[in-house]
Amino acid sequence: MPVWLLILILLFAAVTFASHFLFPSVRWFFRRRLERVVAQVNQKLERPIQPFKLARRYDMIQRLIYDPEVSQAIADHAHTEGIPESVAFEQARRYAREIVPSFSASAYFGIAIRLARFLSNALYRVRLGHHDEEALKAIPPDATIVFVMNHRSNMDYVLVTYLAAERSALSYAVGEWAQVWPLSGLIRAMGAYFIRRRSRNELYRKVLARYVKLATDAGVTQALFPEGGLSLSGALMPPKLGLLKYITDGFDPAGRDVVFVPVALNYDQVLEDRILVKAASDPKRRFHARIGVIAASAIKQVWLKAIGRYHRFGYAAVSFGAPLSLRSFPAPPSGDVTVPLARALMRRIGNIVPVLPVPAVSWLILHKGPMTRAELSAALSEIVRELPEIHVHLPHHEVASAVEVGAQHLLKRKMLIEENGRLSPAPGETELLRYYSNSIRHLMPDAPAGAPAGAGEVSALAGS
Q: Which of 1, 117, 312, 352 has the most C-beta neighbours closer than 10 Å?
């Protein structure tokens, strides 16, 4: 027998042995280990990880592409496009593979939570704003919780993951920016699912809609940004209906309830602020974020840390609003609750946006003109007294401390200049000051009557 033939036979025998005996044993070993990790984690969480989230990714993909509604969408797509159903089926399979995550409890609680805690506290002084702990704990244990948040920065994912670590594992919808290797694998392992925000393909939309609906019906805790993307102006933006509509469509009041928890975030410094402000003036609203600039900035911060001159980027605060039950939400005559629900959620988010030192000082100077620190303190004290319902963060519980923190931060970034003791906008920095001012403008005394910014208009784009 030729040597090459013997080697080939032995190779096939080794593959057969591995596939029939070794691989199942290895999978069984890791599955048992995963089950032990999940059991330990569930003892610490307010809401245990749902079995749906722990299903094998292959099984979830199969369940999704053979769903009756997806099967009908495949047939409709094949008829519309004039292609064989087998081709349409493979497209649906490709969409499902793109969307479905591969959650790993070890990656989420062993890596993601620790990394989120480290990054949040390394970059900011994190503060928990308004929250009604009793109302959050009173949510029925069998309800699906959806955290609905304003979108200021890509740090939002990190910050909320850190602050919600004791409640449950969150499932985020992430855009195309995260579909790069090796980041995509880590994000999938943390339970996030990918969406194409600008897709107009009906088959893709149906596959995405069915995944979101299946996850919601299974009780998976989710987090979504109704604005659809980062705010370029700093203000709350009109909500989009994509993911929200997927959740509300076909909701059965007699089944599992869906409870929305409004979450509002604000920062003294948004890491991407200049990129966002520049994108706002771009006709195509494109982000010009070069990887070299980002890497250089990160290296600079590491160097400052090493020589003892590193300072955090001010305060970051998160507020949790009153939960809103979909079951008890009044349906309009049309029966579609999505639009009024989106408006109600944006109002609740807007009402609890934390007022931090930098946004407060920015708004006062833009609104009232150049001011001394004493005048800023007097003006902010008046706001705190007249509007006790807003959530103003005062370092050391003193208005003067808030003014000093905000002024020093803006002077350090050369967004303000000081002449004869009066603070005024630096040349060319007015738009950036307005970006921070806009985050709290709807809460201030001269805000237009009615709903806060972003609550009045609704966009029907999918993939919000």
A: 352
